[in-house]
Specification:
Strand order of the largest sheet: 9-12-8-13-14-7-15
Number of strands: 29
Structural class: alpha/beta
Largest sheet: 7 strands, parallel
Helix content: 40-55%
Radius of gyration: 39 Å
Distance between the termini: 89 Å
Length: 1120
């Protein structure tokens, strides 16, 4: 006899079940088994103790269908060889590799991990719906009209058929096991003496229906509890319940349905006292707030009915998902503080735990709240699993630098963290390949001490050599059983993984785990890994495999490993999704992320077949999975249930943009609730409202918001009136007493971020002066960086963060190589002792022998010989050779056009150099002292000068000097950039040349400065060749005509003598003002933009200054 009990969710079904069990046991003691979803079993056990006390321990077992099956098979005698999800995936992975060439629909995705998982899930769904591979084959002829679907079904049937053959007579998967224990229910004697209750399920697959049918025939009694009601207007909500009841009534031999309220009413009538009878009936009602009860009655009702009131309901519209998480955390903190709730009285529901769960956990931790994520946890990020998969990946593909660092940065080696970090930097600096780890290290003798390299070799011997040896040992074995034995011996005996896992779970001085969830994970993970290895041994042990296939299949098995972590304490705040949330009656429910497509879940298609294809197959007589309509109906029931089981406070929120800034729309659930309760106003999140006092409590967010508000107060732009400002400051200092000295930091940072435009001169001197001479020595590139942004200059030359050197060829390295080649070639031309002369260069081939000689000498030592390694560097060297040949040949042609007395290459200007430094006057002579300082000057800087290196100085017969600056990029001269202070090199170099004295001609007379572009002589699609003409500015000389074959200078950059002096003076004043600003400590965040060039584009310090055009007040200082 089967009884289907049903009710709405405003009835306490748990109390009803346990009252009936108690009453039945008082007449005749039976064992009771309650079958429930796995995530619901803990709550049912708690309810059993609540309503039945200690007697529940002896009388009731709560379990899932799988555990019941284990008991049935054990009771009926015999044992079976079962494989788990890991075993299934490893078998399917092997099958797919062998049949992939026969695929039509799946060939392109056959190696995709997600596809393999979908394939496994798809076959499990088919078996749960009692569909076989033969059924798939039979339906192919019915799918002629849908060829794409037909090919999918064909490919799936191939894999499904091979999988079935592989298992036949040897193994049972989970679905086969259900079929087995269904057949053995009749032989399990304990079933005949057991009352079975089925509670908490909304969806049943065909295998479950089969089990229920067998239980009805052989159990002492069968009782099914469903959420259902026959009320008009709610047919859509209770459609799933109606379909399930209909299915059971057709399937079961003797079945009755009973409405729980009517059952309670009949029992109440037997109570003589009317008040007692009313109390009895009321005890089964969930006493929710009137407004929550209105939602329960109307959420999915047509037509919907509105109700007055707004008690117990809060709806928030949040600016983004982060603010939404902060708002939820602040709300929980507030109601616990003000209303005395415990964490166990509150639940949070979010249908996107997988993507947003960790952010919520982080935000709640910031508020001092440990948030438990109710999810089956993948172990992909677990320490044990990342180590194992790193090792297996290295065996499969070779131990690359990135792969080894992933392994060595595991928590297993935490005590060696500093040494491994040094090793990582060393290996990255020299671009280690797999082969570099197999030999003793020798690179780096120019940068590292001998004992440092020896230390790296010791680490290699300890940590890397065992892995290389493991790879070789596995390559020597072909049989899977032997390979597993080699891997097992390495992990157990050599690496001693068990003892290392125990060390991960170290307790603190009070005997508590630092991270209980991680400790729970680690306690389970090794056993799970051992289970995967055992499954692989059982099902594939006799097979021959190459390492690549062995590692691939083992990885697939490890990818399936998941652990179910239980809440660490009974008083715990849980974040779950609608489907998994099985908390029972709850005081406070927060439903967050209430946006369209997420609440309710849109039933996004992530299986082998789309929902349309599933319907086509269903019409053809093939059931491949639970219909999408049923999944959607289940989601509605879950939303309805979780709202209805709330008694006191219902908090709802949705964000209007996601973490990428994309627009989000509120869920129809939000709209329906607003229609049911029109008196409830939608609030903006507390941050957007400016209610800082509500947010105080989360350390990081509070700090950032307080800083923003203090800046507004300083600016006078705060929206608070004087009273609110007073309250704000009181709250701030109240928080301070609980959070150490953070208020001081907040006030300092708030004032700093608004007012800090410069640092004191004394500090600037300490940061910028390299010695005690008091000389501030500036370079042209340093001045240009200051011109682009004073803060970037401060970071580079004041803070000077260490930048890791990587020994690979960067664009700056290419520039250095080109400069080196240019200098040495031109030096040879003007070296009387060298046989190379300008007249001998008539064609490009004339320069190759000299370039090869220069470059060969350079490559030998340049950056530890990095240009000697590998095919890539051979190609790069050939490109360098061609660029140098093209450019030098063009320089030679230009020099042949010029009448020059002398050429100086890479000539330095500075103190004690061939050309003296450029001195910057700190103050007008009338105000100052003989040394350039002035009275009252507190700066330790006594003198400012500019020094640098000029690539090439051409001096003609009359003593006029022209500067040539080599550029490996496409540099163009723009006077506007010099005026802005971001391109000053040409002017500084030309100013410096005036200090060069020539024999018999006196000082050089500055005449012009130019860029020369070093590049390959290529031709574009229009047939135009690269131009090598000099680009810059020049002083007009009436006696000398400008050679347009050498110069591309337009008329606007050919200056009359007076204009030339005016421009030089103007740029000189700019340089002086910038140099003085550096000395005075200017560090303001003020990047410049000239034309389309933005100073921030390649800046290394953007993450520090936080300059963002989307923030009010952040703008480029622009020039046309």
């Amino acid at each position: 006899m089967a009884t289907i009990f049903y009710s709405r969710e405003d009835v306490n079904q748990s109390k009803f079940i346990f009252d009936v069990i108690r009453e039945r046991n008082s007449k005749k003691l039976h064992r009771t088994i309650i079958l429930a979803p796995k995530q619901f079993t803990f709550q049912i056990e708690r309810d059993a103790f609540r309503y039945m006390g200690n007697s529940a321990v002896m009388a009731i077992d709560v379990m899932g269908f799988q555990r019941l099956g284990n008991q049935i098979v054990k009771s009926a005698g015999g044992d079976v060889e079962k494989i788990g999800v890991a075993g299934r995936k490893m078998i399917v992975s092997k099958i797919v590799r062998s049949v992939r060439d026969d695929f039509r629909a799946f060939r392109e995705v056959a190696d995709n991990e997600d596809f393999l998982q979908m394939l496994c899930d798809g076959m499990a769904d088919l078996k749960r719906q009692n569909t076989s591979s033969e059924d798939l084959n039979e339906v192919l002829n019915k799918l002629e009209a849908t060829p794409a679907l037909r090919e999918k079904v064909r490919d799936l049937s191939i894999v499904f058929g091979e999988y079935s053959k592989y298992l036949e007579g040897k193994y049972l998967d989970g679905e086969d096991f259900m079929e087995l224990y269904n057949r053995r229910i009749k032989d399990a004697k304990f079933i005949r003496e057991t009352d079975i209750w089925i509670y908490g399920f909304d969806l049943f697959d065909e295998k479950m229906f089969d089990t229920v049918a067998e239980l009805e025939e052989y159990a002492a009694s069968l009782n099914i509890v469903l959420t259902y009601d026959k009320s008009k207007g709610e047919e859509e909500l209770f459609k799933l319940g109606q379909e399930t009841i209909t299915k059971f009534k057709n399937l079961l031999k003797n079945c009755q349905e009973v409405k729980i309220e009517e059952f309670i009413e009949s029992r109440a009538k037997s109570i003589g006292n009317e008040k007692e009878a009313d109390r009895f009936k009321e005890s089964y009602k969930i006493n929710s707030q009137r407004e929550i009860h209105a939602i329960e009655k109307n959420l999915y009702k047509l037509p919907l009915e509105s109700s007055p009131g707004n008690g117990g309901i809060d709806i928030f519209q949040c600016a983004n998902q982060y603010y939404e998480a902060v708002n939820a955390a602040a709300y929980v903190k507030k109601i616990i503080r003000e209303k005395g709730y415990r964490y166990r009285d509150i639940v949070i529901i979010n249908n996107e735990i997988e993507t947003l769960g960790e952010m919520y956990k982080r935000v709640f931790r910031d508020y001092g709240i440990d948030l438990f994520l109710d999810e089956t946890k993948s172990l992909r990020q677990n320490t044990v699993m990342t180590y194992l998969k790193g090792v297996i990946g290295g065996i499969e593909d070779g131990f690359s630098n990135a792969n080894l660092m992933e392994i060595l940065n595991s928590e297993f080696f935490e005590e060696m963290e500093d040494e491994i970090n040094d090793l990582e930097i060393y290996s990255r600096n020299y671009l280690f390949k797999s082969s570099d780890w197999e030999e003793k290290f020798t690179k780096g003798k120019n940068s590292y001490e001998e004992d440092e390299i020896e230390k790296f070799n010791l680490l290699r011997t300890m940590l890397v050599v065992p892995l290389i040896n493991l790879k070789k040992a596995l390559e020597e074995e072909r049989v899977v059983e032997k390979k597993i034995s080699v891997l097992w011996n390495f992990l157990e005996k050599e690496f001693k993984i068990r003892s290392r896992i125990k060390k991960l779970n170290i307790k603190d001085v009070d005997g508590n785990f630092d991270d209980l969830e991680t400790a729970q994970e680690n306690a389970q993970v090794w056993n799970k890994v051992v289970d995967v290895l055992n499954q692989m041994l059982d099902i594939l042990g006799d097979e021959d495999m190459e390492n690549e296939e062995f590692c691939h299949i083992l990885t697939q098995g490890l990818d399936t490993v998941e652990v179910g972590v239980i809440p660490p304490t009974s008083d715990c705040l849980i974040l779950s999704d609608m489907r998994r949330m099985k908390k029972g009656i709850t005081n406070v429910t927060l439903i967050v992320n209430g946006v369209d497509g997420i609440l309710p879940s849109d039933g996004r298609e992530n299986g082998i077949f789309t929902s349309d294809e599933t319907e086509i197959l269903k019409d053809a007589g093939i059931h491949v999975t639970v219909p999408i309509q049923s999944v959607s109906a289940e989601e509605k029931i879950n939303i309805y249930r979780n709202i209805s089981k709330t008694t006191d406070e219902l908090y709802l929120s949705y964000a209007i943009s996601n973490q990428s800034g994309e627009k989000l729309e509120p869920s129809m659930i939000m709209e329906a609730i607003r229609e049911i309760l029109p008196d409830v106003e939608v609030q903006k999140d507390w941050i957007s409202q400016g209610k800082i006092t509500e947010i105080i409590g989360g350390k990081e967010i509070t700090k950032e918001l307080l800083i923003e508000e203090i800046i507004k107060i300083i600016k006078g732009s705060t929206k608070m009136d004087e009273t609110e400002q007073s309250q704000f400051l009181k709250a701030l200092f109240k928080w301070h007493f609980n959070e150490d000295a953070q208020v001081t930091e907040i006030l300092d940072r708030g004032i700093l971020e608004e007012r800090m435009l410069r640092i004191p001169k004394e500090l600037a001197g300490k940061l910028y002066l390299n010695d005690e001479s008091g000389v501030l020595n500036l370079s042209p590139s340093r001045l240009e960086l200051f011109g682009k942004c004073p803060f970037a200059h401060f970071m580079s030359y004041g803070i000077r963060p260490e930048i890791e050197k990587v020994y690979k060829v960067e664009s700056s390295d290419l520039g250095s190589i080109y400069h080196y080649c240019m200098k040495h070639f031109v030096d040879r031309i003007f070296d009387a002792a060298d046989e190379l002369s300008i007249e001998n260069i008539r064609r490009k081939d004339d320069v190759y022998p000299h370039i090869d000689e220069i470059l060969e000498a350079l490559y030998e030592e340049y950056n530890e010989g990095i240009l000697r390694d590998g095919r890539e560097e051979e190609y790069r060297k050939e490109r360098i050779r061609e660029v140098c040949a093209d450019s030098i040949f063009e320089v030679a042609k230009q020099l042949q056009e010029e009448s020059l007395k002398d050429i100086l290459c890479e000539v330095n200007f500075g103190r004690g150099k061939k050309i003296p430094e450029i001195k910057i006057e700190k103050k007008a002579d009338t105000d100052g002292n003989p040394d350039g300082s002035f009275d009252g000057d507190t700066s330790p800087c006594r003198e400012i000068c500019i020094s640098g290196q000029i690539d090439r100085l051409d001096i003609d017969e009359l003593g006029y000097g022209k500067v040539v600056d080599y550029k490996s990029g496409s540099e163009k001269f723009l006077l506007e950039e010099a005026e802005a202070g971001i391109k000053l090199q040409l002017f500084i170099y030309l100013m410096a040349t005036a200090g060069y004295k020539m024999k018999g001609l006196g000082n050089v007379k500055p005449k012009g400065a130019f860029y020369f572009g070093i590049k390959e002589n290529l031709t574009d699609l229009d047939g135009n060749k690269n131009s090598y003409k000099l680009d810059g500015f020049i002083k007009k000389d009436e006696k000398e005509k400008i050679n347009r074959d050498v110069y591309i200078t337009g008329d606007r950059h050919v200056f009359e003598a007076e204009r030339f002096e005016t421009v030089m003076d103007m740029i000189g004043d700019k340089i002086r003002s910038m140099a003085l600003a550096i000395e005075e400590g200017e560090i303001k965040i003020e990047p410049k933009k000239v034309g389309l060039k933005e100073s921030c584009e390649f800046c290394s310090y953007r993450g520090i200054c936080r300059f963002d055009l989307s923030i009010e007040g952040c703008n480029y200082k622009g020039f046309k």
